[in-house]
Amino acid sequence: MNIGVDTTRCCGAGQCVLIAPDVFDQREEDGIVELLDATPGEALHPAVREAAAVCPGAAITVREPS
Amino acid sequence: MTPRQEQTVRLPLTGDSPLEAPAAWETLRSGCPVATAELPSGDTAAYLTRYADVKNVLADPRFARPAATDPGAARVAPDGAGGPAADADGSVAIPDRGEGHQRWRRRVGKYFTAKRMTALRPGMTAMAESLVDAMVERGGPADLKASLGFPLPVFVICEILGVPAEHRERFSHWSDAFLNVTRFTAEQTRTAQAEFTRYMEAHVAAVRADPGDDLLGMLVRDGGAEEDGGPSDEELAATGMGLLVAGHETTANMIGKMTALLLADRSRWERLVADPALVRTAVDEALRFDANSGFGIRRYLTEDIEIDGRPLPSGTTVVCAMPAANRDERMFPDAASMDLTRSPNPHLAFGAGPHACLGQALARTELQVALEVLLRRLPTLRLAVPAGELHRLEGLLVGGLREVPVVWEESAA
């Protein structure tokens, strides 16, 4: 799994941090998303998929290995 | 494919009971996804009910809430009786479009991070516990909304603004007056605004003299004096007003509606008592399922667009019916059922895109805390009246229940 974030689309809702705090954080200066781990282990995949699905800015993209 | 019909609906649409969805939503979603709606002001707007359409318009950075200066923009209520939340008049000094909006949002947004809201959690839990304790002491039946729903969010907002506890009652009243379309006259709304402005002027001066750890203190410390590019007094006061308008009555009502929804079918409540780990998904499902959250969010089109084959010219006001979108079967399997484990749950209760609710991490935390405390302290809680006898609140932009009468087993409390 490979994760990308688009900081220009992020609206700082913090949903991703609540759902997958090991993968996402919010920048101290403006609350915008910060990617901690672009290739997290399998145990975190369900949380990452949920975070991407509920992101109100559609700022998270998840590429799954085919 | 179902033939598309032109339909005009009068807002707000209401269900048979306040917890039920209006039947018209399903009819509109399947047959007329871009309907014409008449608002309480008599003005008309395009009315969207499908998930994809609502989300696309909300997330479109080109469009914002109508301003008083937008030619032909649909007003919510006549004669400015809707208050600042309905009018978006010039007294609200927060930029709501473009780069100015984004700059303000990021300045304030840094306060509302998920982590900071998590840090506020123990304080919120203590407030919720003492409110529930006071309710139990007074004895049942009690109105859960007045006992917990209404005070908790305004206490939290006062804390965030650095307002002392003894002024919380005044803030409650102002907040009520700002949002009420019919219960307060335009004159009363203006009086409340004037009192609030006076209060905030003094409060902002005190914050500038000695900035604390609260939101306003942070904005002053980060931005410096106005002449150095920092926030103006008006901006700081408007930020306080914005928090009340956006965050008090909405959350207060949602605490009431969430509890009512969970108690209306008591197997839901029992499931959460048995498994409190479901609180997180249950809160978001209550947000999705809430059919009574007001009629939606307006967007003013500054360009011609087309939605579902219907051309909408520049100058059109669009009403995005988020609660209708949240029950769209195209997006949510078994949308008409409340599923406390639903995940993912990309509901639109907080909007989407650049104007998505700034305080959603705060609101979620408050709702989770309120529910956790109720489940722990009052597992025997039930509605004191049949769910069909709950009454919808009249006159607010923000939908809610007038009261949420509850009882519990005294010995178990």
Automatic annotation (TrEMBL), chain A:
Species: Streptomyces harbinensis
Pfam families reported in the protein's UniProt record: Fer4_13 (PF13370)
Cofactor(s) required, per the database record: [3Fe-4S] cluster
Molecular-function GO terms, alphabetical: 3 iron, 4 sulfur cluster binding; electron transfer activity; iron ion binding
Keywords noted in UniProt: 3Fe-4S, Electron transport, Iron, Iron-sulfur, Metal-binding, Transport
Name of the featured protein: Ferredoxin
SUPFAM superfamilies: 4Fe-4S ferredoxins
Biological role: Ferredoxins are iron-sulfur proteins that transfer electrons in a wide variety of metabolic reactions.
PANTHER family reported in the protein's UniProt record: FERREDOXIN
UniProtKB/TrEMBL annotation, chain B:
Source species taxonomy: Bacteria, Bacillati, Actinomycetota, Actinomycetes, Kitasatosporales
CDD domains: Cyp158A-like
Annotated protein name in UniProt: Cytochrome P450
Residues of the signal peptide: none
Keyword set includes Transferase: no
Source species, domain of life: Bacteria
Gene3D superfamilies: Cytochrome P450 (1.10.630.10)
Keyword Protein transport annotated: no
Family label: Belongs to the cytochrome P450 family.
Cofactor(s), by name: heme
Region (Disordered): 66-99
UniProt organism field: Streptomyces harbinensis
Compositional bias ranges of the Low complexity kind: 70-90
GO MF entry, a single one: oxidoreductase activity, acting on paired donors, with incorporation or reduction of molecular oxygen
Database matches in InterPro entries: Cyt_P450, Cyt_P450_B, Cyt_P450_CS, Cyt_P450_sf
Keywords annotated in UniProt: Heme, Iron, Metal-binding, Monooxygenase, Oxidoreductase
UniProt xrefs under PROSITE patterns: CYTOCHROME_P450
Pfam families named among the record's database cross-references: p450
